[in-house]
Amino acid sequence: MSEEHxxxxxxxxxxxxxxxxxxxxxxxxxxxxxxxxxxxxxxxxIREYWWKSMVQLHENIVGxxxxxxxxxxxxxxxxxxxxxxxxxxxxxDSKKRYRADVLIEDYQEKYKKKNQKEIDKARKRFGDDFDExxxxxxxxxxxxxxxxxxDIDAKLKDGLENDLSKVKALIEELGIxxxxxxxxxxxxxxxxxxxxxxxxxxxxxxxxxYLRPETAQGIFVNYxxxxxxxxxxxxxxxxxxxxxxxxxxxxxxxIMRMKEFEQMEMQFFVAPGEEMKWYDYWKEHRLKWxxxxxxxxxxxRYHDHVxxxxxxxxxxxxxxxxxxxxxxxxGIHSRTDFDLKQHEExxxxxxxxxxxxxxxxxxPYVVETSLGxxxxxxxxxxxxxxxxxLGDGNTRTVLKLPAALxxxxxxxxxxxxxxxxxDMARRIMKDLSLDFNCYYEEKDSIGxxxxxxxxxxxxxxxxxxxxSLTDESVTxxxxxxxxxxxxKIADLDAIISKEVSMKELLKGLV
Length: 510
Ligand code: GAP
Prior knowledge:
This protein is an alpha+beta fold and 510 residues long. It is built from 18 helices and 23 strands.
């Protein structure tokens, strides 16, 4: 996917009512975005796919909806007040600020791309006989590149954990230049806390409160409430979707890195010693959730963390191949018993579980899956948006979203505005609206209307023509194949249901 394509995603998102810059008539607000009439539907459908796959398909996972505001001490206990920061570095010439670790990871990416080129070349040469695993294990160029990557990883980890001046030294050693100015004139690396704060009450000066930087803590503080009221047995999970806020200094790449965004998180509570088994389970299951949407699996990869968050003993990202390289979409973290133990210590309340089988009480260990809804939205828009050559000298812009996630499931289009066609179309619409989100449109030629529906990803268009008045049939047209066929109005509900069914999508996960 090229930079060009990414620009197209951004302009298309605005032109067709998916994503707008926030407060645009006031010239916008950096790294804050609003979802438009089509964006809000797509976002809701992604959320529903996640919720159903996590909560409905797992009898031992339930949901909560905790507040954004929490007792301020939560963030002291969770380690966010002291430890939730990014290492930032400024370029003195361009005055641009960067995350030091991201500059280094972007540099490493060059070596990863070189490896991929070697693999692609060899695959072409050897054809069907190509054994990728053996090639990767024996090719000297790949070995050299991997050694370089590992060496940088080790130095970065040491610097981030022990001494930030070593991170600056590494940037200088690698000769990393500012992408804007090309200059290597860097400041020192400093830590910058990412939490926003505000005042809880207008009168009490002592009432500083934070906007949550992750939804997870709303789950931890409710762990016992849910476990007891739901009589949950370990292992069990608590899922939640909702807004989170981070003062991202280096906010860029559209909705990839925002100051206000939405997370879909699940904390899975397990017995001590069982966490790595569940970590592996969720790692695999979550990748399947992504590829189940029909995205090319080669577009996804795992990336093990070099530096763990303060709460984790194992962490992996599921990364997607964006135009700016592979970047994190979802994180899977083994959070140990860190969070619950901290909340025990800070509240003096026991957050334990009595395990009948083991005949003992313990603080459960936690495996977390954490997906950014906005990033997932970007993955889908980037994959789905296509300029298709129709082979007759024409092209069309089409958004090939998974049908179950499209903003509208069908569009109802009377061929003309006259001759009772709109009346009949509205009658059909009234019926179908009980099951589906339907778009009604009677302006412009039918060809233009088809193109507009293609551009917002509507899987099925229904055209009501003069014959419909007598034969109780309509023409339906499928977005992807552009195939058209005549069907009975009475069959429409069943045909659309089959095409856009969330159930069919979910079946891929069971
Ligand atoms: N509770 C764990 C946690 O918050 P994280 O890796 O910091 O982990 C999880 O965030 C996911 O949230 C990321 O994989 C990403 O999809 C999304 N995310 C994080 N920061 C974001 C931002 N500034 N803008 C948009 N999405 C973000």
